[in-house]
Design a protein that fits this description.
protease, five-stranded antiparallel sheet, alpha+beta, about 425 residues, Peptidase_S13, five-stranded mixed sheet, 10 helices, carboxypeptidase, 2 domains
Length: about 425
């Protein structure tokens, strides 16, 4: 009798689940077969986080330009490679001289993270020598738009970034410039650009009052000069570190960088996190080293091999499938406690880039990363259904000509169906 009751209960449970999936499938098929989706490419995969059962699948094996959904892979790489505290400097102290090199740590005096661990450490030493040969990467990622050089989201990569590699300019009521090293390089006049293309000459109209955030051109000499301006002392340079064992100085909590990267879709932090991860792995700051390592070791069982060329998703050369995204999200769900994981991702209607989107009734039901480039919009993450069950999803939309707001609106309709039905 007990066996019969158990089998009957199991049958009812399976039937109910099958009925829910059928309702979701019919609703999604109706939406995706509409004329709105006729001239674009769309891929969808939704799975149950607990059972791993597929709830809905459409073109999930096909490649899409992910935009900032790429940061999900960057987050995974950083969580696998980095300790709780970010390595901020490596150094060797010989006699009365401190030789130091960057780790790629983006938090060093970052305008929003504001970590001063490295600065305070350097201030304690009289004779400083900066070594930069461990940075073996390009300033820009492959496929980045060249004419984005003046916009905050396209700051250059470097081995020892300072102030997020951007100049912050505002009036309060006098002209305020950070880093102060660049104060004499700011002209108060109207110009079509925020900065010269080939030099660190910046423009700030006299009538402007808000803060302008503009990337500066990095170089070893510029890094040295900014440091000297901050420390009020000379900084020497050397081509290589001494042969002694390097020591590591640790700085900010890693989660503060992960939250900033995911909530604000901070491209600079994403790129630098790959450099820091590569440095921990190999002692060389090169993003390709960590990307290759993660794909060949931690993600070798992905059903489709991604084309992963940067940390931020600025490049249209990146190619990922919805199955790729869901697989990594699934691994993150296993790797990181749910409360911490959901705090790293933007919450619909509550935080980050989703603060005004995908709003829940009383509490968030979406914890996800959006990704947008012109004519492309993707959203991948976690959905908490009204039943309490967690779904892992990836919606990837490429090459549409309608507005992104309309694309999001239609996506929200499908997400609400998942929330209310499953």
């Amino acid at each position: 009798m007990k066996n019969f009751l158990f089998l009957a209960f199991t049958f009812l449970l399976v039937s109910a689940c099958s009925s829910k999936k059928s309702l979701i499938s019919k609703s999604f098929e109706k939406q995706l077969s509409s004329t709105f989706y006729k001239n674009q490419f769309t891929g969808v995969l939704v799975i149950d986080a607990a059972t791993k059962d597929t709830v809905y699948n459409n073109n999930s094996h096909k490649y899409f330009i992910p935009a900032s959904n790429t940061k999900i892979f960057t987050l995974f790489a950083a969580l696998k490679a980095l300790p709780t505290q970010i390595p901020t400097l490596k150094y060797i102290e010989t006699n009365d001289t401190l030789y130091f090199e960057g780790t790629g740590d983006p938090s060093f005096l970052h305008p929003y993270i504001k970590d001063s661990t490295a600065l305070n450490f350097l201030q304690k030493h009289s004779n400083l020598v900066f070594v930069s040969n461990n940075f073996q990467d390009e300033k820009y990622g492959p496929g980045w738009a060249w004419d984005d050089y003046q916009w905050y989201y396209s700051a250059e990569k470097s081995g020892l970034p300072l102030n997020g590699n951007v100049v912050m300019i505002c009036k309060n009521p006098e002209l305020m410039v950070s880093p102060t090293y660049f104060k004499d390089s700011v002209l108060e006049l109207r110009h079509k650009n925020n900065r010269n293309e080939t030099s660190n000459r910046f423009y700030y109209p006299q009538t402007k009052n808000d803060t302008v955030e503009t990337p500066f051109i990095t170089s070893d000499q510029t890094t040295r000069s900014i440091l000297e301006n901050l420390l009020f002392k000379k900084v020497g340079t050397a081509s290589i570190m001494p042969s002694d064992e390097k020591q590591t100085l640790y700085g900010t909590n890693a989660d503060s960088l992960y939250v900033r990267m995911m909530h604000e879709s901070d491209n600079f932090i994403a790129e630098q996190l790959l450099l820091v991860s590569a440095g921990v792995l190999t002692d060389t700051l090169n993003g390709k080293l960590i990307r290759d390592y993660i794909l060949e070791n931690e993600l070798k069982n992905l059903k489709q091999e991604p084309r992963w060329v940067d940390g931020s998703g600025l490049s249209r050369y990146n190619l990922f499938t919805p199955q790729n995204m869901v697989s990594v999200l699934d691994q993150l769900y296993t790797l990181v406690p749910k409360k911490r994981l959901f705090s790293i991702f933007p919450a619909g209607g509550l935080s980050g880039t989703l603060k005004n989107r995908f709003v829940g009734d009383e509490q968030p039901y979406i914890y996800a990363k959006s990704g947008s480039l012109s004519n492309n919009y993707c959203l991948s993450g976690y959905l908490v259904a009204n039943s309490g069950k967690v779904l892992i999803f990836s919606f990837m939309n490429n090459h549409f000509r309608a507005s992104t707001s309309e694309e999001r609106s239609r996506l929200e309709q499908m997400l609400l169906i998942l929330r209310d039905t499953y």
